Amino acid sequence: MLEKLYFIVSRKDIGYMRFILESYDGLLFMRTIDAAKGLIEVGFHPSRRQDALALLQSLTVEVGLEPADPPADLAEL
């Protein structure tokens, strides 16, 4: 089971985020929940939590990630 975190990011940075996260070869997975609001979901395996959080911290500084609550009506994948 993946741990999941939610963030708001500028719409212009959604593609950049996906590109960066995919370049880490399975460390983190991202899906866009609401492109208009810039809401994204980031998932990672619990065994990779420390590495995942370190990368997210770096991206918070770089692109201004803002933590968000998960939507109440979000469907599981």
TrEMBL record:
Q: What's one Pfam family the UniProt record gives for this protein?
A: DUF4911
In terms of InterPro entries, this protein maps to: DUF4911 (IPR032587)
In terms of superkingdom, the source organism counts as: Bacteria
Protein name according to UniProt: DUF4911 domain-containing protein
Organism, by scientific name, is Syntrophotalea carbinolica (strain DSM 2380 / NBRC 103641 / GraBd1) (Pelobacter carbinolicus)
